[in-house]
Specification:
This protein has a domain of 81 residues. Helices cover 80% and strands 0% of the residues. The longest helix is centred in the C-terminal third of the chain and has 68 residues. One of its GO terms (molecular function) is protein-containing complex binding.
């Protein structure tokens, strides 16, 4: 493989890509690693640099699909002798891989080293790396002050610094609004639950009043039909049953008034 031409490497690149499309990730990874072992010693030409970048991106994808994502970053640092001079697209790919699994520590290491390297300030995807790091790593961790510090220390002009400071404040405001919205929703749910309870209680109280009224009417009816025999019984019933119920229902209202 060491004597392969550029065209043969490109043919291998197409084969590796086709294998990924067919979900044959291990086979694709093997091709990528073999080609990278040769190409990393021939990084003198722009064509070779482009091939190395493309093989690296495919290898990172294979590692992700094989759930061997921990191997991706060491491969990149091995090929490029660190992360600081790594092409922006590979840096962005590594960053995305690690923030998707919430490996924020590795994201911090990648971003801080690469973003503060002055040779990367003019890179095509510099702002893309910065944006992804802010939105997907710092913002989810509520590190809004770190966003401001980063924007002031990396390669941005004054206008962009102001833009990112404003962005940090907007993200912080949005986070506060989101928390307030969640609290309001919880309060509304609590009120709805209590409202349901009070509705049931209200119906229950109304039913008890209806039973009491019906009972009184029954007593009145019985008294009218059996004035002599029922009168004494009715008075006794009133004293032992109706009067306690009356006090139970209406006593609190009299006290409150």
């Amino acid at each position: 493989m060491e004597d392969q031409t550029i065209e043969e490497f490109r043919a291998n690149l197409r084969s590796a890509n086709s294998l990924i499309m067919n979900k044959e990730f291990r086979e694709s990874l093997d091709i990528c690693l073999q080609c990278l072992d040769v190409l990393k010693t021939k990084i003198d030409s722009e064509e070779n640099k482009q091939l190395i970048k493309e093989f690296c991106i495919l290898a990172i994808q294979c590692y992700a699909e094989l759930n061997e994502w921990r191997e991706a970053f060491p491969l990149v640092t091995k090929i490029y002798n660190g992360i600081e001079d790594c092409p922006s697209l590979i840096t962005l790919t590594c960053l995305k891989l690690h923030y998707k699994i919430k490996d924020y520590a590795t994201c911090n290491a990648i971003a801080h080293i690469w973003l503060h390297n002055k040779s990367n300030f003019s890179s095509e995807h510099y702002l893309g790396v910065l944006d992804n790091y802010i939105v997907n790593v710092l913002a989810p961790q509520k590190k809004f002050n770190d966003i401001i510090k980063l924007s002031e220390s990396c390669g941005l002009d004054n206008d962009l610094k102001t833009k990112y400071v404003m962005k940090a404040k907007e993200l912080e405001t949005a986070d506060i609004d989101s928390k307030n919205k969640e609290k309001l929703q919880e309060l509304e749910e609590t009120i709805e639950k209590k409202k349901g309870f009070y509705d049931i209680l209200s119906r229950y109280i109304k039913l008890r009043y209806q039973v009491l009224i019906a009972f009184v009417f029954c007593l009145v009816y019985m008294i009218r039909r059996n004035k002599d025999t029922i009168l004494i019984y009715s008075l006794q019933t009133f004293g032992t049953t109706i009067l306690p119920l009356w006090r139970r229902f209406f006593g609190p209202y009299r006290k409150s008034s």
